[in-house]
Design a protein that fits this description.
This protein has 130 residues and is α+β, with helices and mostly antiparallel strands. It is 40% helix and 21% strand. A four-stranded antiparallel sheet has the order 1-2-3-4, with no helix packed on it. It comes from Chryseobacterium lacus. May be involved in the biogenesis of curli organelles. This is Curli production assembly/transport component CsgF.
Length: 130
């Protein structure tokens, strides 16, 4: 019986399990980086073309000029609205500011302002709740 136990255990070998990460960010081989990146890019369903070009090529001087333009246009539009509506509230009606056509109506949800740019055809609606 002792001989059977000795010969029965002789066929078994043990080895140690070692975990090796694949991702180089977690200690894996750095040669896997390019493969992981290309695999992730191939699976990406979103198009980030706008975000890539949005910040490209804008230096601090261009950023300052854009900020200044926004402030001037904001002040100009505030003064135009002040002239048109005075210090009172906006009344329902149709208004034209250059190529911008505004239609102000009262709805059950509140005041709806429809904005149409007659030069480009772009339009937007804003609802100001009661």
């Amino acid at each position: 019986m002792m001989v059977l136990i000795l010969f029965g255990t002789a066929g078994f070998c043990a080895q140690q399990f070692v975990y090796k990460p694949v991702n180089p960010a977690f200690g894996g081989d750095t040669f896997n980086y390019q493969w992981l990146l290309s695999s992730a890019s191939a699976q990406n369903q979103f198009d980030n073309a706008d975000s890539k070009t949005q910040g490209a090529g804008i230096n601090s001087l261009d950023s300052f000029a854009q900020s200044l333009n926004r402030q001037v246009l904001s002040e100009l539009s505030r003064k135009l609205f002040q002239e048109q509506f005075g210090s009172g509230s906006v009344e329902a009606g149709n208004y034209l500011f250059g190529s911008i056509y505004l239609q102000v109506t009262e709805t059950a949800q509140g005041m709806m302002i429809s904005i149409l740019d007659t030069s480009t055809g772009d339009q937007s609606e804003i609802v100001i709740p009661k």
